[in-house]
User: Fold these one by one.
Assistant:
Number 1:
Amino acid sequence: MNPSDAIEAIEKPLSSLPYSLSRHILEHLRKLTSHETRDWHYGEKRGR
């Protein structure tokens, strides 16, 4: 599953939250998956 598929999969459950809160959570998830994907691409995947 690629990161964008994972984010799409949780958008529906998050829709039960207030809009501003669900957007805030999704923005953070997108940032995390973006950094993780970039690090993985460049061979810099680190355990956290």
Number 2:
Amino acid sequence: MINPLVALVLVSFGYLGGRIDLGLHIRMFALEVYSLPMPHKGYVVAGLLVLAGLYLLLLLPLLAIATHERGESQKNDASNPTPIVPTSFRSELRRRGSYSMNYINDIKSHVMART
């Protein structure tokens, strides 16, 4: 069993609880950076800042879109009193009696029927 604090650290670094010894890798990376001359340390830090900036630049708009979509979905749920009953893809195929159709067309028709 993994220590919850270690799992939290792994998740915060983006490994989602993956069984990677992150401390060893961070220590090796810090040792490599420590052995570099000062201008190269600046390049490494600048590169890491650029990567973190790109990550945030890509992630923040996606967060805004997801928040907006959640709000729209909640508004639609409030205005539509009849709930959508989820059906399985297999039961939908059985209902239509069609196993020989193209798989992608089956999925598309199932999704379009629910919307």
Number 3:
Amino acid sequence: MKLFTNVQRLSMAFAFLMCVGGAPGLAQSQVVYDDYDPSYDYDPYYDDYYGSDYDYGYDYDDYILTDSELRKRIKLNLAMSPFVDGEDVRISVDHGVATLSGTVEDRSAMIDAGELAYDAGAWKVRNKLSQREMGERPWADMRDRELKQEIRDELESSPFVNSDQISVIVKNGVATLYGGVENKGEIADAIENAYEAGAKRVKSRLWVDPDLS
């Protein structure tokens, strides 16, 4: 009877701990990266704790930028660029994530605008720009499998990107890049590589992994 009582007490204590603290070793909002679903609009900055220290944009001297400061820097970069008409580009910034919308002249200007936003200090850029001229459609001449290989070749040949850390998924000409990289500059370079390979659009699911720095 005494043994049975002790077992009951242990069971009740364990149940109490589970109710208070949850299952040991698991964060309640943690996303398991091995279970990455390409159909889900996954964003590690919002979906789990990873990267939660990077709530704002940073410049290259690690000076923290507020959203308004970052927006001004992006606007200035676009205004100074000879390749992008910044007057037709709308900029919004939320916790260091910049969204570009509006219309630019062509595909090259669209890519340049995204690069300029990263250069200004954005941690992530959502490039939603439309193009006036749709002359270049490299993704239309390739199957998704071929485009994926072209992107992999671009990443592997780049001296600025560690391609071993990046996975590539392509669907209907839209490329999704997933993985951890050393720094913000590598994210921008990888996105540019994917566009240069011929992607219609590039979704970045890349994050800065401090273990790689």
Number 4:
Amino acid sequence: EFNWDAHKRSLVLGAFFYGYILTQLPGGYLASRFGGKWLFGGGVLCTSVLTLLTPVAARTSFALLIVVRVLEGIGEGVTFPAMHAMWGSWAPPVDRSRLVSVTYAGSQFGTVVAQPISGILCASTFLGGWPSVFYVFGSLGVLWCIVWFIFAHSTPDKHPRISPAELHFIQSNVEPKDEVLSVPWWEIATSKRVWAISIAHFCNNWGFYTLLTCLPTYLKDVLKFDIQQDGFMSALPYLVMWITINLFGLLADYLRQHNILNTTQTRKTMNAIGLSFPFCCTILFKAFFNHCSYAAAISMICLATAFSGAAFSGFNTNHVDIGSRYAGILMGITNTWATIPGFAGPAVVGLLTEHNVSKDQWQIVFYISAAVYLFGVVAYTLLGTGKEQPWN
């Protein structure tokens, strides 16, 4: 309908991240100060309403669409820090991995559901075809927010329906959080433990965004595969990752509960698995893809995403371990760094392959991703910890 060139399409996709990165740190602070319930719900509500307005904005002007996309990112940017702030009050140490993992796994499951449904809606005449995607998912987001505002609560002591036994268990295992009035910004900024999480978070997202946003372009333009023609196959890596995020969360808590590994060892092990296996797969991509079928290529991508699910029980849960009082702020800090690959990664890929889409040029892309993965493993292994920090 719009006949946008590649540059305009990249602007539309990247505009979200420009807004998203702006509210990571403010979102973490506000969630730690006032609780995550209203901030999280408000962020989703804002994004849902703007999603409903997207078709109108696109048909009005390209500039208005970019503004809407940036505002969507601003609304969505507070959600992960708010979620972490809530788990800082709700998640006992022995259940922390599975609880944090299952919430973040929802992002993958949403993609699994949304991709094939979006394809069906686009091909239909319902509400004009492609606009129906935004109307349907925007409406579902608004309805979900109503349920969230009714049933969710920032802390266990504010929940009117929690059982006395559960409240006692949580309060016995999770230190109560006073209102955050003074944040130890300098201590956090200079903490090598926070930098360990930030580096791992950045490296994981660099590889992940390259794997699932740029690799389909390689398969299509260089190898003449096109997984985007098949909604299910396009969603399959996300389905695999959704499953493994939950499984590794259960495994991590099992290792902790049975004293097989302590918290530090568990986090480092999960992080190493989550980044090392994609590192190996990325190294092998060119050699493997040159002599493989369509199904084998998808299987290789799924293998990489399967093991990357372990990282959610590594660095991604570690904020709550080292600083539960400031978990939202810590997530805001590390996710700020981790958002950069959302627009920098595709830009680097575009720079390397713009004038030459040969396999050799793409091999450079894969090697860069592999090096980033490896750096994340080494840095977190050397600097990471599962111990609560003195400034908490």
